[in-house]
């Protein structure tokens, strides 16, 4: 954060390459964040998990069809304005996954909801296997990990090891990102 704000950034958006802010253009984005310019709060985007219409395409294109998760989002992605960073003299951080901003006393800070972000975490079975393995190992090496954190990746590994792999399985894994229970295979007809 320090580097970006030292380079005169007004806001920092913490997005992975499979996450997109749901706006049509820069003007619409500026309207969404306008109220944060002098804010002592971070902005938040509801995090909608989606699956592509056709699986086994690693690249997303502008016209790629996606299905959204039918459940309301349980997570947000944060956006930090320069004003918040300055208020705490740079002594803020964010939690794993960029879902919360943490103050100097290690408390989660409240946010102002400003929109939606689209998350397309899985686009093929091969990608799912790699993601499940890497994420599980990454979680296991963290010294202060919570026992129930990142459970979805361990559930994915179990199903992969049992050979329970299909397009319905992949869609079910995306559903699990915010369902927080077991993976439920989901067919295309379940999504329509």
Write a structural description.
The structure is a single chain. This protein has helices at 2-6, 26-33, 82-87, 125-140, 151-161, 167-179, 188-191; strands at 11-13, 19-21, 42-52, 66-68, 76-81, 93-94, 101-102, 111-119. The protein is α+β, with helices and mostly antiparallel strands and 192 residues long. It folds into 2 domains: 2-119, no CATH class; 125-191, no CATH class.
- Rg for CA atoms: 18 Å
Number of domains: 2
Report, as a whole number of angstroms, the end-to-end distance.
Answer: 41 Å
Describe the sheet with the most strands: 6 strands, mixed
Number of strands: 8
- In helices, the fraction of residues equals 25-40%
Q: Which geometry do the CA atoms define?
A: globular
Residues in β-strands, percent:
15-25%
Mean pLDDT: 85
Query: Helix/strand/pairing class, anyone?
Result: alpha+beta
SSE string, helix = H, strand = E? HEEHEEEHEEEHHHH
Low-confidence stretches: none
The total count of helices amounts to 7
